[in-house]
Specification:
This is DUF4398 domain-containing protein. With about 120 residues, the protein is mostly helical. The chain has one domain (about 1-119). About 70% of the residues lie in helices and about 0% in strands. Residues about 25-30 have low confidence and may be disordered.
Length: about 120
C-alpha cells in the first residue's frame, strides 16, 4: 500500500504534472526585453517626415491621375519615375538612414509632382 502511495506522488512529479519550477512567465519576460520594434521609438522628426512622405505620395499620385484624366500625356520616363517613387521602400536599419531616405523620397515626389503639373 505504501508503494502505491509513493508511486502516486512520484509518477506525476516525473511526468511534469507537478512542475515545481515553472518559469514560463519569467522566460517570456526575459526574452522579450530589448526586442521592442524600433518603430515604437520614433523621433518627432521621423514622424513629421513620415507624414510629409504620405502627403507627397498622395500629391504626386493625384497630379498624375488628374493629368491622365484630362487627356494630357505624361512623359514615359516621368511616369516610370513616379511609379518608382510611389513604390519606394523607406525603411532602414537605423534612424539616421531612415530619416535620409524619407527626406529623399519626399523631395523626389514633390519634384515629380511639379513636373507633372508643369506639363
Amino acid at each position: 500500500m505504501r508503494i502505491a502511495y509513493v508511486l502516486t506522488l512520484f509518477v506525476p512529479l516525473v511526468t511534469g504534472c507537478y512542475a515545481t519550477n515553472d518559469t514560463s512567465d519569467q522566460i517570456a519576460t526575459e526574452t522579450s526585453w530589448g526586442t521592442t520594434p524600433a518603430e515604437e521609438f520614433k523621433s518627432p522628426e521621423i514622424v513629421r517626415m513620415e507624414d510629409e512622405w504620405a502627403q507627397a505620395k498622395q500629391e504626386v499620385a493625384t497630379e498624375r491621375d488628374n493629368t491622365v484624366a484630362s487627356g494630357q500625356a505624361i512623359d514615359p520616363q516621368v511616369n516610370e519615375d513616379i511609379s518608382e517613387v510611389l513604390d519606394r521602400d523607406t525603411s532602414a536599419p537605423n534612424a539616421e538612414l531612415r530619416l535620409q531616405r524619407l527626406q529623399d523620397a519626399v523631395t523626389d515626389a514633390r519634384r515629380l509632382a511639379e513636373l507633372v503639373r508643369a506639363g
